[in-house]
Structures are given as C-alpha cells and as structure tokens.
C-alpha cells in the first residue's frame, strides 16, 4: 500500500506547482512541528499487562491550536497519523476556522477489547499526552473506531489530571458532557452542503444514483442524508463486504441490520458483492467513507462514477487523481468535502470556552454558510488555474497559511 504521508507530501508539491508559493512555506509544511510516540501499559481483564503504541502528531499551529481526531485501528502507524495531521492543517485552512492541524492514534483493534479495557486504554492515551493537550494547545476529536463515549472518558481523565473541566480540550463529546448539537452528523451534513453547491457545476443530475463505501459514522449518515433528499443509494459497504439494490437501498433497514449483526452484509433483498466490485458500479456519485488508498493506479480504471466526493481522508492516491482528471471524473477532495466534522468540532470548542449551547439550527446554519462559500471558492479557483479540485483546495489553504505564517519565524 502507498505510504499516506508520501501521498500527502506529493499533493503539497503538486499544489505548489499549480500556483507559486514561497519555497520556505512548502518546506515548513513538509515537516510536522512535533511527532510524539507513547507507550500505554494496560492491565487486561485476565490480569496480564499489555503495552500499546500511541501517537500524537502536531503538524502546524500557525492558524490556531492543533486540531484532529484520534484513530484506533490495527494498521494505524506514525506515517498514517502524520498524513492525517497534514491534511487537518489544510482542512482547517480550507474551512477558514481558527485551528491548526494534528492527529492521534493507537495501534489496536478495539473490537478485540472489552469495554473496561477500552476505557483504560483511552484514559491511558490522555495520561501519556496530558502535557501537550489542552483547549489552547491541542484539541482532539473522534475518528475511525472512536466514539462520543470515548471522548467523554478522555475529557474526564484530562479534568482529573489538570483540573480543567471545561470539556474544551476535546470535541465530539456526548451532549450531556458538553457536546454540540449536530456533531454526530456534521461530517456528512457538511458534505451534503458541498454537494448542493457543486452538483450542477459538476454536471450531476437532480436525482443521483449514489454508492457509499464504508458505513460508519461518516458513511451511514451520508447514506441517510442523500436518501432523505430523494437520491437513490444503490450500494453501501463495510469491512466485511458490500450490498447492492438497483432500485435503491432502504437505509433505515441497513442501519438496523448493521446494529443487529455488526455488518451491512446479509440484508434480505440485497445482492452481496466485494469492495473491489463496489468501485466498478455504474453510478453518478461515489462517496468513499472508509480508509485511505482505496482508489489507486492499479484499480482506478474500473471506476464508472461521474463524480467522486471524498468523505474519508486520503482515499484517492495522486496517480489515481491524474487518471480520473484525464477522464473528466471530478474528485471533490477530503479537505473540503469532509471539513464539516472539524468545523462543528470547532463550534463545540467555542461553545465550551464561552459556556454556551447553540441550537441545531444555529449550528447547521453556520456550517452551511462555510461549506457553500468554500466549495464555490475552490471550484472557481480550479477553473481559473485550470487544475483539479484537490490542487485548488490546497492552493486556497496554502494562501491562508502563508498569510498566517508571514510574520512568524519558527
Ligand atoms: P468509523 O469507524 O465510524 O467507520 C468506518 C467504516 O469503514 C466502518 O463501517 C468500517 O467497517 C468501514 N471499513 C473499514 N475498512 C473498510 C474497507 N476496506 N472497505 C470498506 N469499508 C471499510 O469511522 P468514521 O468516523 O466514519 O471515518 C471514516 C472516514 O471518514 C475516515 O477516513 C475518517 O478519517 C473520515 N472522517 C471522519 C470524520 C468524523 O467526524 N467521524 C470527520 C472527517 C473525516
């Protein structure tokens, strides 16, 4: 598999060729400010001790405190976390929110842990990193396999260690623990606003046939939102496989089936296919919402979608980007399309710092303004530079970072 950090660096380079930026800016952004690896010793339920490897990468705080989720996955390593941290810097600049970029993780398959072990591991991650975290320093959030409940354990642990119980050191918390209205669905909702702003410009029909890869927090809400708006979600997948219904899936039934069995696979009235076959389905819109490196040089030729909108981070490699651009298949990049998550996370942080609680209508109203404005801005930038939407999004972000870093000499 391609190294995601190499891909992120390549994207940075390619954007700096689409529009010229100071070589010092690009050189600075090639190097995360800080990479931290920690050992997290956990007493397992059977009495044995296991030591897990955890990470926090603080990429850039030029525009505000480091911000970015925490991933629990057996394949998570420092290169993945570095890539995700760089993308967070770019994403926060794209959304024009006052945050920098960071990311965290633990190499673990959380499905193999009991709830008690998971709680001890999550508290252990905060314990090991409590010096570098904090509302004005570094503010984590959920990512793959991390949940609002885990965020609540982490906020509680941080409060015990530091006395800061504002909750503003982490976002994506449950509502009762200071979470924001709308955070659970924010990533998909933000993407839906981008879709609304760009649908016609990208030549998509009013009613689309949609395929969603990944049925977790990002993917299931996306399937639900597009369905509610009258589009046909004809296929979805998870790590166990994919299901198809040519007439459109009943997403409420898919969600119920996943809740009952742990997977979307096996729902009555649907046909099962593999994740590779999913890529080759004839559709208007393909939404990757799982992991990195799903669309690559070796499989890009099978893609039949008219447009790809990236809810996952890093699902398309630079080589695949070029092949898709050459075929006229637009890719709406992760750092724009999934920026709704970090935007509402930032709203949560702001509410915690100011002791406020906004209504869902306020949250989505502010989110919509940002997503529609930046989608149009990036589309226009791509048109004027005659380049793809990813390079255009990086160009917009780099312009804002350059401005913020002009006076700093670090
Ligand atoms: P999640 O853990 O809730 O769900 C991940 C989903 O992907 C699961 O359904 C899993 O079964 C599936 N999956 C894993 N491997 C797969 C494979 N090889 N093929 C198909 N499906 C597979 O995670 P999430 O929070 O929904 O995150 C998904 C993606 O969205 C990640 O790239 C994440 O970084 C990105 N993202 C999430 C948020 C957020 O707010 N949660 C925000 C921005 C970006």
UniProtKB/TrEMBL annotation:
Gene3D superfamilies: Leucine Dehydrogenase, chain A, domain 1, NAD(P)-binding Rossmann-like Domain. Belongs to the Glu/Leu/Phe/Val dehydrogenases family. GO terms for molecular function: glutamate dehydrogenase (NAD+) activity; nucleotide binding. It holds the Pfam family ELFV_dehydrog_N. Keywords: NAD, Nucleotide-binding, Oxidoreductase. NAD(+) binds at residues 187, 217. The active site is at residue 103. Residues 180-409 form the Glutamate/phenylalanine/leucine/valine/L-tryptophan dehydrogenase C-terminal domain. Substrate binds at residues 67, 91, 345. This is Glutamate dehydrogenase. The record marks 143 as: Important for catalysis. The keyword Transcription does not apply. It comes from the Bacteria. GO terms for biological process: L-glutamate catabolic process.
């Amino acid at each position: 598999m391609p190294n995601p950090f190499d891909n992120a660096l390549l994207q940075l380079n390619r954007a700096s060729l689409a529009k010229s930026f100071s070589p010092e800016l690009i050189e600075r952004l090639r190097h995360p400010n800080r990479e931290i690896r920690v050992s997290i010793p956990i007493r397992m339920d059977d009495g044995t001790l296991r030591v897990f490897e955890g990470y926090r990468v603080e990429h850039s705080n030029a525009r505000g405190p480091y911000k970015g989720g925490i991933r629990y996955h057996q394949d998570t390593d420092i290169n993945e976390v570095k890539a995700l941290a760089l993308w967070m810097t770019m994403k926060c600049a794209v959304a024009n929110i006052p945050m920098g970029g960071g990311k965290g993780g633990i190499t673990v398959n959380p499905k193999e842990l009991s709830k008690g072990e998971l709680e001890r591991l999550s508290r252990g991650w905060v314990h090991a990193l409590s010096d570098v975290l904090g509302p004005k320093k570094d503010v984590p959030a959920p990512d793959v396999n991390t949940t609002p409940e885990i965020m609540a354990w982490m906020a509680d642990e941080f409060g015990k260690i530091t006395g800061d119980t504002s909750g503003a050191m982490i976002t994506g918390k449950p509502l009762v623990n200071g979470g924001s209205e709308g955070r659970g669905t924010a990533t998909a909702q933000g993407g839906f606003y981008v879709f609304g702003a760009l649908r016609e410009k990208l030549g998509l029909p009013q009613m689309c046939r949609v395929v969603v890869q990944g049925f977790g927090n990002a993917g299931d809400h996306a399937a639900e939102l597009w369905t509610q708006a009258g589009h046909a979600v004809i296929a979805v997948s998870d790590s166990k496989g994919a299901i198809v219904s040519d007439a459109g899936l009943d997403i409420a039934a898919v969600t119920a089936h996943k809740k009952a069995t742990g997977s979307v696979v096996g729902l009555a009235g649907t046909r099962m296919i593999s994740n590779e076959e999913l890529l080759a389905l004839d559709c208007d819109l393909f939404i990757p919402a799982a992991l990195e490196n799903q669309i690559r040089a070796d499989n890009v030729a099978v893609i039949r979608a008219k447009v790809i909108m990236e809810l996952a981070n890093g699902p398309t490699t630079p080589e695949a980007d070029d092949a898709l651009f050459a075929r006229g298949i637009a890719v709406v990049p992760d750092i724009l399309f999934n920026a709704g998550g970090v935007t509402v996370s930032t709203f949560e942080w702001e509410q915690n710092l100011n002791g406020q609680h906004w209504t869902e209508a306020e949250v989505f109203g502010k989110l919509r303004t940002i997503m529609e404005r930046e989608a149009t801005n990036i589309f226009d930038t791509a048109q004027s530079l005659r380049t793809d939407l990813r390079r255009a999004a990086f160009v917009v972000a780099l312009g804002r970072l350059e401005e913020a870093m002009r006076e700093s000499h670090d």
